[in-house]
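User: structure tokens for this one?
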Amino acid sequence: MKKKQKNLIGVVVLFLLLALGGCVTGPREAAIPPYTPLYGVFANYITEQCIQDVLPTLTAVAPEKLPRYWHALMDDGVLTVALCIGTEDLVNKIYDEKGGGSVLDVKVRDAKIPVTMYEKKIIIDITVVTTKAQLIKALNEREVIFVYSHSRYGNGWALHEEGLDDPFKMQADTIKIPKNQMHGYQGEIIGQSGGYYLLKANTADLDLVIPYPGYQLIVGLSCTSKGQFMKELVKMRAGNPSTMILTTNAGGFLEMRFTIFKRFLAGVLVGEDMKKLVSGMNDTWQKVPDVFFDMYKIKSPVKAYRVIDYSYDDLK
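Assistant:
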């Protein structure tokens, strides 16, 4: 193998180890090529591809019993979804302090896609969320909230347009952030311990949410979101029925084909048992590194663990 080829492989392996490890952001260096040549985010394309995969698997008649969440989401004939997109370092490994960027530029933000599920006509009303204000609006109004992001060491979800230094503030407890990960973040530092700052976090953005009054299904694919955010999310829901799919450890979940989201949406549309649905999301996540490395004809040195968790459910 030529020296140049070896160097390229080394760069690919290094950046993928950082990305699939989850929360640690990459350096300001030239990025490896994106996961897919399809630049940008297309809400219509993502949804339609999911539907194309689902329809051949359907029976003409609904199963004898569909889960309660399916009826809560589908009985009115409209499924409202917010796909929330994090920062671009998740796909190109360049630290995204202030947000924005063209790799995850939203080309089609809103779409309404008709589909017939078990002889019932349903409209999938999907929007792509890239700012804190949009996330507040989505939490106010939409049934399904699906977040791909960083957790910023428990400070909150970092969204595409606002970057890593201005996350969606949703943490009531004191958090620790490595000193080399503070960058331009303007927070209240109350102490330090070794290589960490102790940061007084707050819930300023989450406090602006007026909870959606019906059933809401929240998916938070960011590092250790169950331990970091579930308590505050449950509090935000104010007793309204909810299901939460969160994570128990680190993972770099965002990749440009949105395969985990499509696997999730497919499971919701067919009324899959929630435990089976989450298991399928983990199966999909575990294949992401192998798919990437196969593209570059490299044996994957990374193991993706089953950290997506069926964390909370109070739907009666």
